[in-house]
Amino acid sequence: MTIYALLASYNRAVLTKRAVQDLFSGAKAAKIPIVVTLADDGSTDGTADVVSLAFPETNIIPGSGSDYWAKSMQKAESYVRSRFDLHVGDYILWVNDDILLDSDAISRLFDWAKTDPDAIWVASMRPPDGAGVSYGGLKRSGVHPLAVRLETPGDAPKLVDTFNGNLVAIPKRAVDSIDGIDGNFAHALADIDYGMRARKLGEHILLAPNTFGVCARNKKPDDQSLIEEWKHFTSVKGGGHRTSMVRYLRRHARTGAHFYSSATYLKWWATGLTRRTLRLRDRDIKHG
Question: Please, what is the Cα angle at 138 between 133 and 139, to 5 degrees?
């Protein structure tokens, strides 16, 4: 078995270096060979140089500066699949560069993978305060194709429908079957799309027990206006980026992609206005 780890980075030199170090250390402890490929999307903080200096064995793929997560990960995956001869038993491992892996994360994840080597294995992350789960496996939770909920890991593996791409192990057979990360997404939704495509092909996606590291949820500043929140939601890196959303919905909604996208935006505004009203009410009560 060889692990082919893929990461995407942009201007997070310290975090990226730590993530790469965690991968090499974890694989060494697990006694599993690892190949690390980093797609650096035009970082201006020297990320690529920092990683290359510390870990010269890392493959660095330069980006255009506008590749974001999806295109960066697609480039890294394409590089590995074209340059290396993956064998049955090998895995591609998705890794976000902002996670702090547990020292035994690689060992535990691939110990579980041995129990079902044909499955895609998803590892959950916990927030810095250790309460609950911040990222991991997702289950469908409604008729809307984007209606998913975060699944809490248990003491045994759980079957899930798709996943966040923070730490995911994909066996070579499934990699060939699914045929690649879709780099035409901007940033968000590419990981959820990949999982949904996998399930349509009959792949089993298993959520490994417990958590494997720390990763904080992206938090919006409390002082943002509703318009500022909307701009972030619909931006290239937001979950409501229109091009990415319509691409996802056309693929995973049987009919009515534009209906579902409109419904998503209407729900966002209804929720946002309610949240804003409650926040103002609480502020008025606090100040008498």
Answer: 125
